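Entry 14. Ran structure prediction on the chain below.
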Amino acid sequence: MPISPVHTFKTTALALGAALLASALPAWAQSSTSGPGSASSTNGAGNANSARPATEQVIVPQVDRRPIKRPRYPSRDISVGLYGGTYATQNFGAAGVGGLRLAYHVTEDVFVDATLGQSKVSDEAFRQVLPGGIFVNKNEKLTYYNVSAGYNLLPGEVFFGQGMAKPVQGYILAGVGSTKFAGQRRQTVHAGFGLRLILGDGFALQADVRDHVFAVDLLGKRQTTQNLEVTAGLSFYF
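Output, structure tokens:
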């Protein structure tokens, strides 16, 4: 039976359509795989990256820690010193005085100070008027100890020539203590001022003036006396 041209055309068209469909299937399958699935995987990676802290270190260095011994610097808050000068006892004149000083600097400006001193008092002037004088002996020993609170003020520098300068500071102080004189022990109140010159890293030159106020009963009448002391000395800090 002869094949008509129409049948031949249909057969050719069907074959061509099947070939085109077969060639389009792999591309469609690849695009469908990289579509929603790929987006979800990309979103998952993005979520993972966003979940990582911003401060997280990517590379953690492996450093061997070694113990370090910190240096210890001296605070130099405590000072010990010796001093000497003049102690003027009211009604009996002036005589030499010497003693020991111990201080603790609480802050840069505030300090506490303790002193222990000794002097001699003579009644020679009274012996010229009164036979036998006032004391049993011509010279009597006067000893005292005081505890003071002080405040540093007027810090500055003193220049020695053109190439040397030393720190200097003034201070005021006041306190209480006890004075033993002619067999009597009397409570003492004192106040004064001074100047401190820092000569080096661990020592200073210190001079001060103090007025010791205490009562005595030597001339038949209880009398409050003003006793002026002027001293200078060297203090060592540690």
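The chain has two domains: 5-51, 78-237. Will compare against last week's run tomorrow.
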